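Section 5.1 Outputs to date
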Amino acid sequence: MALLERNGPAGLRARAVAEAAGTSTSAIYELFGGKGGLVRSIHEAGFEQLETELQELTSSNDPADDVRELFRVVRRFARRHPHLFEVMFSRPFEEFEPAADDSASARSLFDVVVGRVTRWLDHAESPADAVDVSRVLISASRGLISEDAMPVLGSTPVSRDRRWDLTFDALLAGISRPQLEGE
């Protein structure tokens, strides 16, 4: 994982991993079954790390702010581990396509998000579906994280933070507003 963070996906080659680990390329293939297995292991470890960070969050008296904070943690994780985040949420390696059993940690992470969103929706007395809202917020955060990394979201940390907050404030306000008759 250190090699991935240092050199990006292009630098993650079996030979380079073996050299960094002080072993042979054949040992990498024996342990992981090839590059796809190595990437699978990194993918799973990334989700486990992010889930651990999210599990450490505490709840406040403001469920909406708790949702905002959850996605701030995801953003900070992505900033600290941009290449790992790419492996988790993009497909930079043709040798690896996550299978159903590869996503147990991703499902567990999703459950954390849905739990926070459910608490917020209940508090807001919103009829919105927690799973739908969770998927929308995850998609929005991934888009913002991508824009932040380029940095298309803004040229300064202050402008990027302001636009991040603006997006989440608008989403949460729109989702939690009462539906009008006939909408």
